[in-house]
Design a protein that fits this description.
Elements lengths: L2 E5 L5 H11 L5 E4 L1 H7 L1 H9 L3 E8 L3 H14 L3 E5 L4 H9 L7 E5 L10 H11 L3 E3 L2 H10 L4 E4 L19 H6 L4 E4 L1 H4 L4 H12 L2
Parallel strand pairs: 1-2, 1-8, 2-3, 3-4, 4-5, 5-6, 6-7, 7-8
Helix pairs in contact: 4-5
């Protein structure tokens, strides 16, 4: 069953916490990205965990192999559920990162192609992720089906999700509705603004889950 990850793209921790409180009955996974983590560090992770929810710590690690491993080891200390590494960081870096997991945590998801990038081959990236032992990949809606069909063992984490009722695309270029994403094989749907900008966020989450059969 796919899970929704709500993106805590907020400037301050109390605002982020108010969203965790609002959504925690319906959503069990929250994404902490660089905006919040650079300001608050592990305190931000603890804030989510305190409410009994899991953290996707989206660090987008990209460095030499030994530093990637240390970054993953530090992420593991926070108890986060998952983190991200750029697949472009080389296979040595991906292998070192994977070796730094502690009892399977954090799950490591590889960033295939940034949605802001004009080009890049997500299948090649997914292949490298698979060979190096990553748990999954972050993949755009446009590439999801071919990646999942080729590498069913990889968890597919998909941003750019827009419910049919949400007209704005914001800066997302390759969008899917929640049900399209699930039927194409998404395991985790990363959703921010369609929930944040909704008049009734909790109702919107319920609608998304119903629509996608979650
Ligand atoms: O667009 P939305 O607010 O739903 O974005 C949720 C997450 O998707 C963001 O936290 C970001 O990591 C990711 N994103 C992306 N490409 C963009 C914009 C956001 O992958 N162009």
């Amino acid at each position: 069953m796919a899970e929704i990850i709500f993106a805590l793209d907020f400037e301050n921790l109390s605002e982020a916490e108010s969203w965790v409180k609002k959504l925690k009955g319906e959503i069990n996974f929250f994404k902490i990205g660089l905006q919040l983590f650079i300001r608050y560090g592990p305190e931000a992770v603890r804030m989510v965990q305190k409410h009994g929810a899991e953290v996707f710590l989206d660090l987008k690690i990209h460095d030499i192999p030994s530093i990637c491993a240390k970054a993953v080891a530090s992420a593991a200390e926070t108890g986060c559920f998952s983190t991200t590494i750029h697949i472009a960081a080389t296979s040595e870096a991906l292998n070192s990162a994977c070796a730094a997991r502690t009892s399977g945590r954090p799950r490591i998801w590889g960033v295939t192609v940034l949605s802001s990038a004009k080009q890049g081959n997500s299948l090649d990236a997914a292949s490298q992720a698979f060979l190096c032992g990553l748990n999954g990949v972050v993949v755009s809606g446009a590439d999801l089906k071919k990646v999942k069909d080729s590498f069913p063992q990889l968890e597919c984490v998909v941003p750019g999700i827009r419910p049919a009722s949400y007209a704005l695309k914001d800066d997302q270029k390759r969008i899917l509705t929640p049900s399209e994403a699930v039927s194409c094989g998404a395991d985790y749907l990363v959703i921010g603004r369609p929930i944040r900008n909704a008049e009734n966020p909790l109702e919107t989450v319920k609608e998304i889950k119903k629509d996608a059969g979650l």
